# Entry
Amino acid sequence: MAKQRIEQYLEERLTTARHTDGVKFSLVNNFRESWTDKKELEIGPETRRSEALTAVSLADKLAMIITASDKARATMGYSENEESEDDQS
# Structure
């Protein structure tokens, strides 16, 4: 009964108080069964691109890694058949 009165008081403070951050904090943390803190996020183009890549199969992901590795080796001056000194040991 006391907890319900406190919750009711805090709910009233949401509409009458000037600064409500503390009231919201108390409601979210002390009355979790009826109060939650929800956040909405705007998904930008980079996130959308990243989400699209998660739908790629494992085989396709491995192919992308191999392609990127080959491009990196070519950029660094390695040929496909050439091994680095670390690979030879």
User: Anything to note?
Assistant: The mean pLDDT is 81. The chain has two domains: 1-36, 45-79.
